[in-house]
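Notebook entry, cofactor series.
This is the third protein in the set we're modelling with a bound small molecule. For this one the ligand is NAP. I'm keeping the input format identical across the series so the outputs can be compared line by line later. Sequence and SMILES below, as received.
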Amino acid sequence: MELALAGKVGLITGASAGIGRATAQALAAEGVHLTLCARRAAPLQALAQELAQRYGVRTLAVAADLSQEAGIAALVDAHRAQFDTLDLLVNNAGSIRAGSLLAKPEAEWQEDFALKFWGYIRLTRAVWPLLMAGGARVVNVIGAAGRQPSAGYVAGGAANAGLMNLTQSLGDEGAPHGILVNAVNPGPVRTDRWQSLMQRQAAERGTSVAALEAEQLAHVPLRRAAEPSEIAATVVFLCSAAASYITGTTLQVDGGLARCI
Ligand SMILES: NC(=O)c1ccc[n+]([C@@H]2O[C@H](COP(=O)([O-])OP(=O)(O)OC[C@H]3O[C@@H](n4cnc5c(N)ncnc54)[C@H](OP(=O)(O)O)[C@@H]3O)[C@@H](O)[C@H]2O)c1
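Returned structure with ligand:
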């Protein structure tokens, strides 16, 4: 299958760990030049160097907090200065914390939405003029809770449902400009974030992480969490020529979870 990604320019948020890191590795392996963003500079720079050396692509590491407008502006300025073009945007940086309606303080709702909801919207708005040059892709990494809400993860469900809706409407809005906008909804994925979600939910429910994880994975027909590379593979597909007739869609990459609960 011809992916036709070599020589494209991409921007990935949350690129230093987990799904974002695996996506950066997979896109660089296809010859995509990349701007990588996360808050901590050291792991990001190490990855940028590694990818440039290994795959011969140009990479730029930008340390920025994408829950802040200033962080978005700094990222976009740095990307424009280095590349001045953009073919692929992967919105991935997000870390909505678990919690039920009252257990989760309002300040935390605001902070979590500032990154996962507003961060995706602000960055997409900021680079949309670059994407309008034609043939561009946006992939939003969202999450299965957007379709399958649960009491212990109310904020994640609400933000994710909003982002799924946004993906669909931007698919419409982007179509006349050749911008295809899609999303991936991972179920459980073995990353630092999954670990901290389990710890927090287990503490709130007074159970152990092992017991909670077993309970959660029992809902997954494949009976395991995904590896980050399994989510990255779908992001790469949606960025590629192989997905040229797909827009406004959210693909579940969740081991069968969504249709089983
Ligand atoms: N893991 C799962 O089970 C799962 C399931 C469904 C959906 N998802 C979604 O998939 C996405 C990636 O999750 P993950 O599990 O791969 O996360 P992760 O392993 O915790 O990695 C998060 C990445 O985002 C960066 N980041 C965090 N806060 C940031 C901020 N304010 N500004 C810029 N970068 C920031 C982190 O680096 P720094 O800390 O250095 O900033 C890191 O590179 C998230 O949107 C998450 O909601 C994950």
